[in-house]
């Protein structure tokens, strides 16, 4: 078997230059521009200067015509005589979406589902010497509109401020059509290598595994899915290599017949090392106690199957993973159990890492997933409005121990149940399950995002509920669950997110007793942050709160004259209806109103971090009732106001820094609920954890509150508590009624410091009154900077008065602080490190870029 990847520069032209002339004069009848493949067409047009950067200002509106046209990419390829023996094929993965392939002018095949793989037999179409390959992409928007006209009845879907109609009728990344955080860019292209293949026998399409554990030994059942082009006998070898293991089954002869063959081997692997989610391996506990921050990589084993000349290699690992959803005294549990150990899922929701597929680079995947793990997260949810992710995504999750909650790609919509649609989805899910199921990180298959709820969102489905419920069930149980249960019987199937579990269709936006919740009462229903403390969820797979990006990021899309929160461009880069008003309204709820855009952007990030911190700290303290909190959302597809914890450029928002603290395996949390203030120690390690907790009541001058005139007699004074927290659990170490604070709530704050392990310290702060009510003193903060290594700077911060929500920023200079969003106390300097992306950064440049903002600076 021979294969060539047709990567490189192809040529691009519109199918109808005369129509495109209405938008650009760049294309005459014969003009072509270069387009890198794998890649997308919008990116090529941007690169050629034919369309403007759609992420800037309101340019997105000016590029909508691109998605309404048809486009052709072409290239020549030289074929040698030897390649023409046997049969030849052209294959596609991630081809977006409606395309026709022509070889030397003759149609070789067509595709119409971005999530399927396609292989077309091109034998007889190629010849020795120069051949032309053309791929014609049809407008998915037009195809969706045509499909809508053919539906037996309307199939409703949710729309966003800028959108392309009937997205739900085409099997394409749903958010390409616009979302409440994303632009409408109806991309076209092929985002993985197009391969030209030649064989005399056949192909290995997939290699899949199942595992049976017998004490320390594992039986691996390897199924090779082999498509033969002729009846023949081929030798098949299976090899598993890795730390301490080298097991081979060599060359068993296997008879195959034309079409798909399943070839099975069983391999015994003795005492492999186990795969664990981040933070859960035995050595992770030791790292927590000593303070090592290195990211642990999991032991992965290489499985290679050779079938005649075809070879397939993949990385596998050894672990058990179960979803425990069982009735209990609180309703029904939901949590992951890995190698027998219950794991609290800490994580974020993943949307595609760029709206332009050409910019979904391996570097971006690696940075985002490293950043996710750096914030002590162990779970990522691949949300159903995006895409089954690229291989590199799952490979990184395997390495770093990030459990993947995998939605099937359906979101916020109803979907058709016509036979052609269901056939297309069946082929899609069969491909994706066999492609992805061996990743040790893959923890759960979920049917869709919010499609059960969507049944109640539209007049059509409210009026004719039965019809749409039947369609829902045909797709979800009839196709998705049916295929997943058959092809991946060892992995959990979860019907929808949110869901109370199989066969239960409760309202999991508000009911907290069973399954996973999407808790949107804070933000979409505009409740106060306290609402997070009114539920006892089992697992929250979505909850979020918006902020603006930092000033340097806003400047990438808003020209200077638009730097105002109600300017047209700032409102355009906000897709959640009324979003800017919600942010501003909450400023007035919690804070003294900030002056100037810079302070507003900063405060929006403080507010977001505070909202999500309130939720996560409380829900973690409910363990084991609650066993998961997955923040909406990790990343952005373009620069925009959104719920993300990391800005489009990769800069961490204050939320991501705060997440690193509120998701830490060992943490102290403080909260006020029902008039009581309490402190809890969270221990996600597998050991009994002796701790000391110092609780101090301080004035806004930084003095002990109890010693002040005005302090009530017989009230709380500073405390030091010694305790031992059991493994994987939470201990309440302190509680007092708010009325026992030494001073009025707005005159003092509580500062808790936890000591554990090798003299490791972590702290937390609670303002018992709303920040706007507190009589904060203006703090004068000083910084001293030292360069420790070419990329590492140390910043020491000192203050004369307690300073809250103190944030460091470096404008456009890329890099990450070791800590941010700090409480600073007088006489207690705080040192943080900044690791720059570039080695070329001078101390002078760094100091010039560095800014410090604290709450009292904003008004
Ligand atoms: C959800 C998600 C997304 C959406 C987000 C914010 O429920 O599933 O569809 O972007 O909320 O509104």
UniProtKB/TrEMBL annotation:
<feature type="domain" description="Mannosidase Ig/CBM-like">
    <location>
        <begin position="675"/>
        <end position="773"/>
    </location>
</feature>
<keyword id="KW-0325">Glycoprotein</keyword>
<feature type="domain" description="Beta-mannosidase-like galactose-binding">
    <location>
        <begin position="32"/>
        <end position="191"/>
    </location>
</feature>
<dbReference type="InterPro" id="IPR041447">
    <property type="entry name" value="Mannosidase_ig"/>
</dbReference>
<comment type="pathway">
    <text>Glycan metabolism; N-glycan degradation.</text>
</comment>
<dbReference type="InterPro" id="IPR041625">
    <property type="entry name" value="Beta-mannosidase_Ig"/>
</dbReference>
<keyword id="KW-0326">Glycosidase</keyword>
<dbReference type="InterPro" id="IPR017853">
    <property type="entry name" value="GH"/>
</dbReference>
<dbReference type="InterPro" id="IPR008979">
    <property type="entry name" value="Galactose-bd-like_sf"/>
</dbReference>
<dbReference type="GO" id="GO:0004567">
    <property type="term" value="F:beta-mannosidase activity"/>
</dbReference>
<dbReference type="InterPro" id="IPR050887">
    <property type="entry name" value="Beta-mannosidase_GH2"/>
</dbReference>
<protein>
    <recommendedName>
        <fullName>beta-mannosidase</fullName>
        <ecNumber>3.2.1.25</ecNumber>
    </recommendedName>
</protein>
<feature type="domain" description="Beta-mannosidase Ig-fold">
    <location>
        <begin position="777"/>
        <end position="858"/>
    </location>
</feature>
<keyword id="KW-0378">Hydrolase</keyword>
<dbReference type="Pfam" id="PF17786">
    <property type="entry name" value="Mannosidase_ig"/>
</dbReference>
<dbReference type="GO" id="GO:0006516">
    <property type="term" value="P:glycoprotein catabolic process"/>
</dbReference>
<dbReference type="InterPro" id="IPR013783">
    <property type="entry name" value="Ig-like_fold"/>
</dbReference>
<dbReference type="InterPro" id="IPR036156">
    <property type="entry name" value="Beta-gal/glucu_dom_sf"/>
</dbReference>
<dbReference type="Pfam" id="PF17753">
    <property type="entry name" value="Ig_mannosidase"/>
</dbReference>
<dbReference type="Pfam" id="PF22666">
    <property type="entry name" value="Glyco_hydro_2_N2"/>
</dbReference>
<dbReference type="InterPro" id="IPR054593">
    <property type="entry name" value="Beta-mannosidase-like_N2"/>
</dbReference>
